């Protein structure tokens, strides 16, 4: 055996002996509490030895390992290629954040930030490995419409206090992460493959950091929520995933994927003056382009889309190109990761019963809603809502579920769809704004999310929540998701809009990992709402396939059912209710059902 390997084994044994937490009693007195472990992990995995050094914060008792690369840098000939898993080897300095993946600067979109060597993750753990079976793990996929965001934004001090390990990951963004037309030879979706590589890395290594590889929940927000569902339903990820937490997003969202990626691929090729007749020529051409050029062209395409009345698309939180539905595996090439429309895949019984916790905020669209702008662009608020309804293609969604949101609809006096979508012009500005927010939140968020819970509950436990706490502190959405039109164009004071709930789970940082103090929760109300939200998420994290029950405040929760739509209402008080927005959602569903 090599001398270095022998030394590392000896150090590993000494570390275990030195830092095993043994509480003994001598002479009838409790022994002194041992000191905290050093933030150093020794790893021996498949013959590779590594020493990973992190950071310990004595004020929070949290161990942090930052900027660990889970894949080789996707540069030069590896740009646009699927990731190559990176094994830990030798000394690893995990005391600083990795750069974000290339994207526009949050505060000056003309400036490009980040680096292609960005496929990294952070690990936050409240304890080092001991003799226990390991803590549940939450793998977090950030939102940002596949164009913005980083792992460094999400401070895990609050959520890890409930004895879970939190692992936010980074993945390629924009053209660098999605480019492809879905065909067998050019499937694309390398960003989703990045997520799978991170999941695989965590499965192999998390036990060395005190985690249980059999208790991995994949959690995402917005576009990250739909990505989490794609990963969980794919043959690549489902065997390693123990549960899904989908915040304000769903793979049933009309804009969470594209059936045919050829149009967007042609757009990108034309923007760079590259031929799109042959994928190899296109890739070769784009590999010669600078990162600044690629990200700038992505921004230009985003502006063109939004100017083309795609404000409707931006309502869903999507601003870039969505993942492709890839060709099915024909054994002639590498199998794809999203090979079936989610509307179809959710109808089928999965190979593994994976529970889901899914929900939204009460006023998702509050930050983008401006009655004057809506009237200016669409002629009237009513026109906007009707156009939004058409964009959702609700008929397709309802044909998938083949059932009503509730079986008791016949007992209700449901108003006509036209009345629901009509906004009288003589309404006061405040009432008009509230109407726009309520209906557009139903259309773009509550309908896809509720139908997702409906489909999921047929084969696995589903739990549904609504976060409706209007806090005293500044809305978190504009800090975590600042560049998204859905959150950047307004001030959601008096509402809880898209992304605002994030500051109740995490401390806010910028994409480089600098603290944003403006989101600090100070009032007792906000602190209580944080406690309740974290409790909901972490209780779900402790669920497993053999124990699919979930309890909060000593109460065993009912799983989501289509005929009762049970849900958890999260605020400074934690309450349990049923018939989630039954009247409003029934209007939308019944109106389409009558046409079918």
From TrEMBL:
Keywords annotated in UniProt: Glycoprotein, Signal
Signal peptide: 1-24
InterPro entries for this protein: AB_hydrolase_fold, CarbesteraseB, Type-B_Carboxylest/Lipase
Protein name as it appears in the record: Carboxylesterase type B domain-containing protein
Bias (Basic and acidic residues) ranges: 341-350
Residue ranges, annotated region (Disordered): 317-350
Domain Carboxylesterase type B: 50-575
Gene3D superfamilies named in the record: alpha/beta hydrolase
The keyword Glycoprotein belongs to this UniProt entry's keyword annotation: yes
